[in-house]
Design brief:
This protein is an alpha/beta fold and 336 residues long. The protein has one domain (21-335): Rossmann fold (3-Layer(aba) Sandwich), CATH 3.40.50.11550. The protein is 42% helix and 14% strand. The chain has 13 helices and ten strands. The chain has helices at residues 24-31, 65-74, 87-101, 116-123, 130-137, 146-149, 151-159, 171-180, 187-195, 200-213, 220-243, 264-274, 324-335; strands at 43-44, 54-56, 61-63, 77-80, 107-115, 163-168, 248-252, 281-288, 312-316, 318-319. The chain has an eight-stranded mixed sheet, sandwiched between helices. Helix 1 (24-31) runs parallel beside helix 11. The chain is globular, with a radius of gyration of 19 Å.
């Protein structure tokens, strides 16, 4: 069995979590960002055969960087996935932004890591540097390590003169909304969810994925709330992209959000279809390689699918991580 590469949520990948509904708020904090660490994560498997290779899922063939850039330039919605703590993923994203900057295209870049409160703060300022941007973002208490993980990417986006957009809700607001239930969602997001219902199979798969990514410690009520949180965040990200008038709308988000079958692309397509517009979406997943697994097709197992639910996969080294379930179980034990 391959390890889970989906980064359904930031740092709880491959954890297994059982809790009461009272701890949903704590889990939603985990859903919104990685816990910062003072240490730079160690990267493993640099010599793996797939590292650096780019896989076209539909064509089932490797492509080079030139072909990747051409595909990106043909898209209107360019979704760049990641594992949030993998610096190679941010380097690849930065490189793609650099390639876009060589063209006259108007581009906006929305970040999962920036919420609506932060977005309002940024809109009131003229941002001239990554340091200034990070200082403004850090006025809000989050678990995102902007300095370590996103400074170079921010700098490149700003150097290109691209608009930076929010693609998330403030943690407290999201927690409050999810606790109220789907009927109490803000109208704009409820319309998006109503327009894009998940099938029973999709819902069950997402719920199972969330249970697995939380160490199999969730009760049914809690996991359903987190399914709603995940769906709402996908809708929020899609809404942020749909609002942009740029020629190319870029999204930086976790790999689980850019999957075609039930992530942001699903909400984009349903809204664009009702407007009679063609959905030119390119979803690029940055996936960590696994020891001994050199067949790209085998990585579909990570997504509980017969095929990878992405358009392009770019393989990278793997971050060495401790098992977070140990600390999480300790946290829940202390709360009991």
């Amino acid at each position: 069995m391959l390890a889970n590469n989906k980064s359904t949520e930031p740092c709880v990948n491959k954890w297994r979590i059982t809790i009461s509904g009272l701890l949903v708020a704590y889990l939603l904090v985990l859903l919104l960002g990685c816990v910062s660490s003072s240490n730079t994560p160690e990267l493993l498997l640099w010599e793996h055969q797939l590292v650096g290779k780019i896989w076209d899922v539909k064509q089932q063939a490797f492509i080079d960087k030139t072909a990747l850039v051409n595909r990106a330039l043909e898209s209107e919605y360019l979704l760049l996935g990641e594992r949030h703590d993998n610096l190679v993923h941010h380097q690849h994203q930065t490189w793609l932004v650099q390639q876009l900057a060589k063209t006259p295209l108007q581009v906006s870049v929305a970040f999962e890591m920036i919420d609506n409160y932060q977005g309002e703060r940024l809109a009131k300022q003229k941002i001239t540097s990554a340091d200034q941007l990070i200082a403004l973002l850090n006025h809000s208490k989050t678990n995102w390590d902007y300095e370590r993980n996103y400074k170079s990417l921010f700098a490149e986006v700003l150097a290109a003169g691209y608009k930076i957009d929010m693609a998330n809700l403030n943690t407290k607001r999201l927690m409050h909304t999810v606790k109220q239930g789907e009927d109490k969602l803000p109208a704009v997001y409820k319309r998006m969810l109503d327009k894009t219902p998940l099938s029973t199979e999709q819902f069950n798969a997402l719920q199972q994925e969330i249970n697995q990514s939380h160490c199999n410690m969730l009760d049914d009520k809690s996991s359903r709330k987190l399914v709603l949180a995940q769906r709402m965040r996908d809708a929020i990200m899609a809404h942020s992209l749909l609002r942009s008038r740029a020629q190319v709308k870029v999204l930086i988000a976790g790999n689980g959000h850019v999957r075609n079958d039930r992530g942001v692309p699903l909400y984009l397509r349903s809204n664009l279809d009702t407007q009679g517009k063609q959905a030119r979406i390119l979803s690029i997943g940055l996936l960590e390689v696994e020891t001994g697994e050199t067949d790209p097709l085998a990585y579909a197992e990570l997504w509980d699918n017969n095929t990878l639910p992405l358009d392009i996969v770019w393989f990278t080294p793997q971050v060495k991580r401790d098992d977070p379930c140990v600390k999480l179980r300790q946290h829940f034990k202390s709360k009991s």
